[in-house]
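Reviewers asked in the last cycle whether our approach scales beyond single polypeptides. To address this, we selected a multi-component target totalling 620 residues and predicted its structure end to end. The input consisted of the following lines:
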Amino acid sequence: MRKKTNRILLALAIAGVSVLALPGCLRDTVTETHLYTLYTPVFEQKSDILAAINGDPGQAIVQPGQIYIKDNFIYLNDVNKGIHVIDNSDPSHPVQTAFLKIPGNSGIAIRGNILYADMYSDLLSIDITSPSHAKVVGHLFQYFGYRNYFADTSRVLTGWITKDTTVVTLNPGRGLYLAPGTPYYTLDPAASFALSNSVAQTKTNTGIAGSEAMMTLIGDYLYTIPDPHSLGVIDIRDSSRPTLTTTISAGLDLETIFPFQDKLLLGSKEGVYVYSLANKVVPVSVGQFKHGTACDPVIADEQYAYVTLHSGTGCGGSANELDVLSAQDITQSSLVKTYPMNGPTGLGKDGPWLFVCDNPVVRIFDASDPSNLKPLSSLNVKNPFDLIAINHLLLVIGDGGLYEYDYHDPAHPVLVSHLPINSIKS
Amino acid sequence: MRVSVLLVIAGVLFASAARGQTRWKYRSDNTVGVVAGELGNFGQVQTVNGVYKGPWFFGLGTGLDYYRFRTVPLYLSVTRDLFGASEKSGFFVDLGGGITLPWFSGYPLPDGIVSRSFSAGFWGNGGLGYRHALSDHSKTAFLFTISYGIKRVTERQTSQPVCFACMPPEPQTTQSNDYTYLNRVLLFGIGFQF
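The resulting structure, written as structure tokens, was:
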């Protein structure tokens, strides 16, 4: 019996020593197969690019971006490529009448017959009296400074040549995860990186933008976000000479602009900043509503402001929700209620109806009582990004293109037309 | 490939063992223990159920293995008693091989990653054990095992690419990284055989 016990003790001792001592000699092997994308820029002379913005025939939509409407026309940004001009006189049959080839474009604002658009770091004013014979009439170069891709300002980046390369790495970083798909660039040594966007909403002879706008027109001034922390004011009384009048440090991680009464609501990743336009040239901060880190377009009516927060894709945070804020005194706004969402982005409101892009659907609510939103219906739109709802016509931008719905009966909206990507309707 | 080889070996051993024997008996080996490796010590539970005759035991094993990622191994196990120790106290060697299936959720997503998916991989171990019979010629016994093991798990992480003008909707071309984790561990278990 004692012999057996000794054996057991011996076995346990060997096992124990082995477990305690030997693992230090063991090494796991982690093999990473990483796909790198090499980007090589393609440049053209800026003078050639400006001359070529003359209203090409309609082109297929590749990657729909921001949306803007004025009169019977829809202006649809094709990310970094230009602007599609779509005649929407008959919503059941939208016609792509022209394409403004503007490299680096992401935003739109229109007053009268002048369209303001960004071209990477430049702001252009374009006469669209006849969209098919558009002409650049003015510019403000190097305004969106953080979108400078290269030191040579006489050239414009018009595209990228991409090449995928697979690299196998053994024991990468020992537990440090690398984000796949990380791009590598072959740029000029003096290159710097930046980005921006734009769109606007005002009354009178201006158009209406979606909620993701980063540019808005009020009176004689164009308000933009030239970099993620600044608010810029551009005097556009003379459209041939847009002039920067003011740039102020307005907040952190600014994303969107929404005009509200005599104020501007700036949506940022940290919250909503409120600026008074009592002095239109020098906006003054009058309030702020903070929330958790997330991307957040904001809209408002006379009583309430609506903010969507979504996480992911560089937005940070983990919130996916719709926040309703009191807006009777927007400078003292407070949270009324939070509604959970899947991944909300753009939103809009028309009368009592609230529309929210909440991938993979667009949700329609009865917002008569904002503290008790009543869901009415949802529309299946893949990755809806932004929308405009006006006069019972809902325009939705998604991965699949431009969708138009009639919502005379919001509980049963009807698809009126669909302008798909990679095709032309003329 | 390695799984196939192990299956063939197990089959040959099983056939050769069965040829000279007349009666197989059921046996169940159940252990809990520690998996120790570069990442530290993790828990493990195993149960192997099969038949034995003489010094040979063939069984099907499964359990839970928490090293690096929680997985469920499914494997064939072959055990041979040493020094004529069948149904007595004594040492034995064992060899096992099969697959291990990921079984988990809720692992955090690293920055920039929108999804993580895991695939089954090879699982194998071989080592030495001690069987302490509660009485002579009884198949009921305490078990002490130590073995060297390999656990291979593959992972695919997908992400949205870094964008130039990051205002949505940026190109949503999903790209991926593939990781292969070849874990080398020591397994120490104690348990019960009946």
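The helical segments of chain A are 2-21, 46-52. We regard this as preliminary and will revisit it once experimental data from Aim 1 are available.
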